[in-house]
Amino acid sequence: xxxxxxxxxxxxxxxxxxxxxxxxxxxxxxxxxxxxxxxxxxxxxxxxxxxxxxxxxxxxxxxxxxxxxxxxxxxxxxxxxxxxxxxxxxxxxxxxxxxxxxxxxxxxxxxxxxxxxxxxxxxxxxxxxxxxxxxxxxxxxxxxxxxxxxxxxxxxxxxxxxxxxxxxxxxxxxxxxxxxxxxxxxxxxxxxxxxxxxxxxxxxxxxxxxxxxxxxxxxxxxxxxxxxxxxxxxxxxxxxxxxxxxxxxxxxxxxxxxxxxxxxxxxxxxxxxxxxxxxxxxxxxxxxxxxxxxxxxxxxxxxxxxxxxxxxxxxxxxxxxxxxxxxxxxxxxxxxxxxxxxxxxxxxxxxxxxxxxxxxxxxxxxxxxxxxxxxxxxxxxxxxxxxxxxxxxxxxxxxxxxxxxxxxxxxxxxxxxxxxxxxxxxxxxxxxxxxxxxxxxxxxxxxxxxxxxxxxxxxxxxxxxxxxxxxxxxxxxxxxxxxxxxxxxxxxxxxxxxxxxxxxxx
Length: 506
Prior knowledge:
Blueprint: H1 12-21, E1 35-40, H2 44-55, E2 60-64, H3 70-75, H4 77-94, H5 111-125, H6 131-136, E3 139-143, E4 146-150, E5 153-156, E6 159-168, E7 172-174, E8 202-206, H7 210-221, E9 225-230, H8 241-253, E10 256-260, E11 262-269, E12 275-281, E13 284-290, E14 292-295, E15 299-301, H9 308-311, E16 315-316, E17 319-320, E18 333-335, H10 346-362, E19 375-377, E20 382-387, H11 390-396, E21 400-406, H12 411-416, E22 422-428, E23 434-441, H13 444-456, H14 461-465, H15 476-488, H16 492-505
Parallel strand pairs: 1-2, 1-6, 2-3, 6-18, 8-9, 8-14, 9-10
Antiparallel strand pairs: 4-5, 5-6, 7-15, 11-12, 12-13, 16-17, 19-20, 20-23, 21-22, 22-23
């Protein structure tokens, strides 16, 4: 397993990567006067805040205790999508015959090569988040543990930084659930799974949220036998149930064994360093020995060691407490990203950091509640969402009209062999106002941006439907929803008036 300052294996790619995100010869600068902004945490929120503030002339310091780039670059979005793309390539080979393409029998993925490619591409991307790049941008980069010593001071590696404003952007980390025996075995999290170099024959995964679903399907596509355990029924509990079930069926076709409604779960060490997983699922007992166990449920905010009490910053088990303008209980200290938000996405952290720059440096009034935040789980097919779901609308007492377009009736999806999916858009009852949407499609993460753009700019579903989309594309499914809305306006009374008008015009 990787420790705090080392990535495994220590090949040329991880060596290059580490030289960018945590250079061993880095020398911290010497503080010289008060900073306009001190940023604690070098993940997405911290990097955006630091670069943005320095770009407009602010005197900025950035403090990072581990690796620049945060969870996204080191152990999240970047390495996982590298693996996912390889899994999709393997799946395309395995199903090539469906398209009349013959592939030699016995073709198999090379897991070692898959992971090497991931490491190579992660290293290729890492200069964007490197300590050296941010120094070139005019940011004073301090590598080391930072802790508040007062309401406007923070100490790093024996040096005291004084600030006018600060932002806490320390992110979150994997947190294991209370499962019997889990603390007695060597399990994986998202922070260590990308250090694998050999494909495990059998993989157990606890948690069918985004990480569990994505990596569970990917391991199955790459040839592992996968047991995905979820305490509730089905996968992706935060998603529309019709849409989540579509993804679940695809995962099961790829060979994922879903053990949902898991009860009485126990974990024990087995022979040869393997792990025994026992549980009940829908009344049936399971006793499976796996080569690797991935715990993919639970996150904890990184607040330990910051000495937030000294700065008068309130926090709890969910993270730093902030108001709608991202101010903490110390009005000169803000927070952004996973450490304070329920939206634990890179793009959400990015735009929260922009709000911090506006509010902290220019007395702005930006609000998190004004953000329209989409998200996507990168399974095959992907599932993407923005705004209210049907469940949300029911809970909040919001009356909605729902428009659904199946990809089975979209020409490009038929030609692509990707008909298992849909677009579902919710509008305010009787109004042309989009309140939310969910898309299940091969590229749902790209497609949801059209709906997000419409919501952000007050464009109704009719406006989307009246916009020409290239034919044939899968995005045409969204335009078809506009047609549905417009047809719904043709009430019996309107049709009667039209009939009379057209009869008179003949």
